[in-house]
Specification:
Blueprint (H helix, E strand, L loop, with lengths): L1 H30 L1 H12 L5 H14 L2 H19 L3 H14 L9 H10 L3 H26 L17 H23 L4 H16 L9 H17 L6 H4 L4 H18 L1 H9 L7 H12 L9 H12 L6 H27 L2
Helix pairs in contact: 1-4, 1-9, 1-10, 1-15, 2-4, 3-4, 3-5, 4-5, 4-15, 5-15, 5-16, 6-13, 7-14, 7-16, 8-9, 10-13, 12-13, 12-14, 12-16, 13-14, 14-16
Length: 352
């Protein structure tokens, strides 16, 4: 099964990151890092503006990648909300949403774009020129959509929870996270895959907290995504998406974005990306539009992206159960307007 083997080889780094990143979040949480950072932030800014947290999540996604945003900011935003005494879900949605909306700016921001760039020899400038504006539109419109449904400020925490941050957790956890961020940014140029850096961080934290978080390893989720990618690679002919790759004109490109959104939320955005790249010889307007859909639109359902599955696992560990229907009720009202904005901008700019 050569096609399946190729597909699995291309998604293996993403699956390795998935398997290691959930335990990383659990270990950092057990160390007390997220609680310590939340305490430090709320001592410094008693009433946190959510716009700042929105911008932080967007910047983290652009510079690092969407999975890092979910793993590091998801638990932190949960702690901030709980310390303020508000429902934690709305604030926890911020990194999830930005992991999709801001993930098309640079090749490193999303594995889908990175795979396309490596397959087709695309440079960073080309990615920014074609995908930057749709992603910016999604981020900006997404903020206004979020504000319509949720408060723009976190209330100051109760006096009882204003305590001195845990210096040990800040020192050790900060060093681990700082080393991770360096590895993610500098390591990419040296060919170091992010999952290797996460593995090293996991081992260091296991030695510190003296616990191996076996139960947090999402093996079933990884196997499910791998199976979907393998089957799709085998059964889908390389010519199946010729019409998508050949699309041009604003109307056709808008339909491509929406079709890519549907594909991502049916089979995950990485298999959907591999499908459109099979048989591609260059970056066409249709292919760029497909990338907008599988990136920005993948947030609608849990299966849409590995970042969604990571996020769902993290909030479940915090006591928030979100079946697929509840997930959709929380996310879709916040994501439709940004998706529409990204679709419109992509159709107008790519169809010129």
């Amino acid at each position: 099964m050569p096609a399946a083997s190729t597909a699995l080889g291309e998604i293996a780094p993403a699956l390795a990151f998935l398997l290691l990143a959930v335990p990383l979040a659990a270990l950092l949480d057990e160390l007390g890092l997220f609680e310590a950072v939340a305490a430090w932030m709320q001592r410094r800014w008693p009433e946190l503006p959510v716009a700042g947290l929105w911008a932080l999540a967007a910047g983290t996604t652009v510079v690092l990648n969407l999975d890092t945003t979910v793993v590091l900011l998801g638990p932190l935003y949960l702690r901030l909300a709980r310390r303020s005494g508000v429902d934690p879900l709305p604030l926890a949605l911020v990194p999830l949403l930005l992991a999709a909306f801001a993930s098309s700016v640079l090749p490193v921001s999303n594995l889908t774009t990175l795979i396309a760039a490596e397959r087709l020899g695309l440079g960073t400038g080309e990615v920014v020129a074609h995908l930057g504006l749709p992603s910016l539109a999604a981020v900006v419109v997404g903020w206004f959509a979020y504000r319509r449904h949720h408060p723009a400020h976190l209330p100051a925490p109760a006096v009882a929870v204003v305590v001195e941050p845990d210096r040990r957790a800040l020192r050790i956890g900060g060093a681990v996270v700082g080393a991770l961020l360096v590895a993610f940014t500098a390591g990419a140029a040296a060919g170091l895959s992010p999952w290797i850096a996460v593995l090293v961080a996991d081992l260091v934290l296991v030695a510190v907290v003296r616990r191996v978080p076996w139960r947090e390893v999402p093996l079933g989720t990884a196997l499910g995504v791998a199976a979907i990618a393998a089957v799709l690679a085998e059964v889908l002919p390389s010519s199946a998406l010729d019409g998508v790759r050949g699309a041009h004109g604003p109307g056709s490109l808008a339909l491509v974005v929406l079709g890519a959104t549907a594909a991502a939320n049916a089979v995950d955005n990485i298999p959907a990306t591999l499908a459109v790249l099979e048989g591609a010889t260059g970056a066409t307007p249709g292919l760029w539009a497909w990338l907008v859909g599988v990136n920005v639109g993948s947030v609608l359902l849990p299966i849409g992206a590995l970042a969604n599955l990571l996020w769902r696992r993290i909030v479940r560990e915090d006591g928030i159960e979100l079946p697929a229907a509840a997930y959709a009720r929380a996310v879709v009202p916040l994501a439709l307007a940004p998706l529409a904005a990204a679709t419109l901008v992509a159709a107008l700019t790519l169809g010129r």
